[in-house]
Protein: Exodeoxyribonuclease X-like C-terminal domain-containing protein
Organism: Bacteroides stercorirosoris
Amino acid sequence: MSNPIIPGIPEAEQDLLYKKLNEYNLGRASYKEAGAYLVVLPRPEYPRYSLWIYSPLPERQSIFYIQDLSEDINESLRAASSLCYYSPRCMLLVEYNAKRMQSRGDDIISIGKYHGHFLHEIFRIDPGYISWIAYKFTPRIPKQERFVQIAQIYHSVHLDIQKRQAHQKYSTSRFLGKEGEKVEDLTLKVLRVRLEDDPYKTIVKGNTPYFYVRQILTLEDSIGNLVTFRTSARTASRESCQLPGTEHAFQPGETVYIASARIARTYTSGNKQYTRLNYVKFK
């Protein structure tokens, strides 16, 4: 299967993306045997990449839509590979094929409370119902047999996602040390950023409010230890929870280099251990 040309990406970057995708697929089953997850390129009326599932059924159309991804190829591949990481299926980057991917109506629910909806719509909100169709519903006509087959494909996607969720549930990070200890030379990746106003610094001059916005960061180190800290803006903003242009806005995925910090607190939340830092000095 040839690699399609990725729109808007230089050739050297495309080669690197396909190299990473090949590394991701190492050790996974052949798509001819186990099927594959497909990241489908944007098309004129659909600017986002999208995730599909191919299953080697001996029937007509065996490619089915799962969900939209991002307009950015790197973010789309990151999200798709993270979602399907624990699946034995490989992942392929492909162009949209209307003949093989357009719904022919055999994936529309014709029974029960979700009558008239596509299976992929209910898969996202009620996967248990898809499982019921896949293994509890008794087909009465040939069309319903095909419908059950498709539900079984979506059920298998649900099982792949559950493997990831189970791994996340039982994996825990470790504390970086004890409260009050100094830590040095940390390299952390930003996972989440939340903005809030500092209530102690917010002031009103005349009729104009001035907000001092804080960024509350959740980060992880190279082995998955979770870290949190907050950093306050030095200049005021006219808008609540909005950083002024003079301040650095941290972004998920960004790498942060810390020269030194103090451990303010350690705590556990949802089977995961977090180390909260203060007196953070950046490199």
